[in-house]
Amino acid sequence: MRRARKFFRLSMGERWLLFKVVGLVAFVRVGTWVVPFRVVRRITARLGRPTGRDDLLATERIAWCVDVAGKYLPDGRNCLVQALSMHALLERRGRPSRLRIGVTKGYDGELKAHAWVESDGKIVIGG
């Protein structure tokens, strides 16, 4: 019940953005399960083409929507899924951002990877 109240306290624009972000995060999550990464990356790059208008939502609010969407989807908090989604959302709004993917070998010899997005010199998701 508390979640529903929080949802209805959001502005109509934020609710609409949250619905779109849930759809995008779900799409990216399924895509990373089903097709090669390069295909998902190409599709999210197309989705991220600037529309020529900015809805003026703060980058932090968009990151919040991606985080909330990830909480309600299976494996939606995966750093790659969230970073790909965030990058597409920022690019679509005409805000420059960089998708970063780092890979290292742990002390146990196992590969470890992490993805994050930077915008205006700051990490906006995946920090």
Polypeptide structure, described:
A three-stranded antiparallel beta sheet has the order 1-2-3. The chain is 54% helix and 17% strand. Helix 2 packs across helix 5. The longest helix has 23 residues, at 12-34. The protein is built from five helices and three strands. With 127 residues, the chain is an alpha+beta fold. The protein starts with a helix and ends with a strand. It has helices at residues 2-9, 12-34, 37-47, 59-71, 79-92; strands at residues 98-105, 111-119, 122-125.
Features:
127 residues; 3-stranded antiparallel beta sheet; 54% helix
Topology:
Blueprint: H1 2-9, H2 12-34, H3 37-47, H4 59-71, H5 79-92, E1 98-105, E2 111-119, E3 122-125
Antiparallel strand pairs: 1-2, 2-3
Helix pairs in contact: 2-4, 2-5, 3-5, 4-5
Mean pLDDT: 87
Q: What characterizes the major β-sheet? A: 3 strands, antiparallel
How large, in whole angstroms, is the Cα Rg?
15 Å
Percent range for β-strand residues: 15-25%
- Arrangement of strands in the largest sheet: 1-2-3
Number of helices: 5
Q: How many distinct beta strands?
A: 3
Q: What are the segments in which pLDDT stays under 50 over at least 5 consecutive residues? A: none
The arrangement of helices and strands along the chain is HHHHHEEE
Measured as a percent range, the helix fraction is 40-55%
Judging from the principal axes of the Cα atoms, what is the shape?
A: globular
Structural class by sheet pairing and helices: alpha+beta
Head-to-tail CA distance between termini = 31 Å
